[in-house]
Amino acid sequence: MPPLTTVKQPVEEIGAAAARQLLAQMSGEQWNEPPVLPTTLVRRQSA
């Protein structure tokens, strides 16, 4: 079976954005639009 093509996501940035959003909500701030973070297509032999 060939290695699968995947999408690389910035896991640390996702976690940091989630923590910021949680803290904002806990302090009564309005919900903001979710951040758009970069992703990268990692092409392997399955593509």
Automatic annotation (TrEMBL):
Domain of life: Bacteria
Keywords for this protein: DNA-binding, Transcription, Transcription regulation
InterPro entries tied to this protein: LacI/GalR-like_sensor, Peripla_BP_I
Protein name: Substrate-binding domain-containing protein
Coiled-coil region list: none
Domain Transcriptional regulator LacI/GalR-like sensor, chain residue ranges per copy: 2-46
Pfam families, per the entry: Peripla_BP_3
Record-linked Gene3D superfamilies: 3.40.50.2300
